[in-house]
Amino acid sequence: MKDKPRIVVVGGGFGGLAAIKALKGSGAHITLIDKRNHHLFQPLLYQVATTSLAPAEIAWPIRHLVHRRNDVRTLMGEVAGVDGHRKEVALADGTMVPYDYLILGTGARHAYFGHSDWEPYAPGLKTLEDATAMRRRLLVAFEKAELEGDPARRRELLTFVIIGGGPTGVELAGAVIELARITLRDDFRNFRPEDARVVLIEAGPRVLPNFKPEMSEYAQRALKELGVEVLLGTPVTAVHADGVDTANGSIKSNTVIWAAGVLASPAAKWLGVEADKAGRVKVREDLSVPGYPEVFAIGDTAVLPKPIPGIGDAAKQAGRHAAHVIRARLRGDATAMPFHYHHLGDIATVGRSRALIDFGWLKLTGWIGWWTWGFAHIYFLIGMKNRIFIALNWLWIYLSGYRSARLITQDGPTPASASRADGSAPAGTVGTPPQDSTKARLRA
Ligand SMILES: Cc1cc2nc3c(=O)[nH]c(=O)nc-3n(C[C@H](O)[C@H](O)[C@H](O)COP(=O)(O)OP(=O)(O)OC[C@H]3O[C@@H](n4cnc5c(N)ncnc54)[C@H](O)[C@@H]3O)c2cc1C
Fold first, then answer.
1. Distance of alpha carbon 82 from alpha carbon 268, whole angstroms
2. Atom of ligand 1 nearest to the CA of 302
């Protein structure tokens, strides 16, 4: 082991795992470090947040994914720094992990364009914890509405605002309105869940700005048909406990969801190298970090001179490329190997029976698009069990509208004990008897 070259891969996401796979047979001793014990299929996170899938259906223990690879050891630890001169990765607990080659695939998180104070009122979606917290917020809003006697307040509880018209915002908007109008339709007595209002706010002139204009138009039409209010050209100016303020007025809402900007992991800071506005390491054409030819940054945490999209397949291609460059260097081959990204296409879904597929040579919308979207995602999942479970689950939801993962989990106030989405109660109401006669009658 001592004489073998040491390759450290930080991040067991799409990019990191693709790199590990491509390093098979390289003869190196590989260490995979991740702060979580699971690999997450982020494209389906919104389905956990909106009760279609359970967390374990879209996440896999990293250790198990590489258990057949004797050349790989897995460490669960949070990287806090990199000493590029000593060639060591520093974990938060002080452990130092030496490397000969390093691949950084530490991804990104959502960002609030300098308004981090908005986060408690408009959480985003990146981890399983984010998804189950969002699921809780959504379901608790309906439970509170059942207890609420004041129609104006009930309206706020049943107003769901999603900020950001990219694929995540569009997919969330479609899933939330169908949760209200189909899944929960018959479950409440004090209000009609189908009266819920879902508002999608986008600062730019169209949703899905990275897709072709005709695809954006289709998505907008599909959202409107489902009942989503789409506000375009509407920058958000503030997010607070009562809802959102926009350039065109305020919307009172108990549940605001953030699906806008992203900020890369601090990999650039660890190395003290140049980053772009989103914090991504400005890598060279072969994905190596300027000044550190043995360090590579891939996926959402890197940006090339010609930027590529922040999507799973781009991260995988980059991970494979970094592995190939390292393998060449290990063979003594110093040839320049620029990374060429091949864009396979754009794909997004709107609700349970509409989707947009644009592979360039093939464009599909409607239910054919939806089934193609479904098969594509099932293909990219890991493990036969999850593929079968998810396929059956989707078929069941498609036919019946019933979503089985409607669980309010995690600690937090019960619907009757607080009336704000962030779990905070309006001052003076917790523990005091209801003053409102409507509420008193409802509780009698
Ligand atoms: C809600 C959502 C929906 C999406 N939908 C799609 C979609 O439909 N199609 C698509 O192609 N892409 C989609 N994406 C984007 C796609 O998931 C990312 O582009 C992709 O995951 C990037 O891969 P990565 O390897 O760079 O990072 P990630 O997959 O994010 O992996 C990063 C890994 O690094 C680990 N890590 C981070 N910091 C540290 C640290 N300090 N120490 C140790 N480990 C660390 C993390 O735990 C994680 O495992 C979506 C993303 C989100 C959030």
1. 10
2. 26
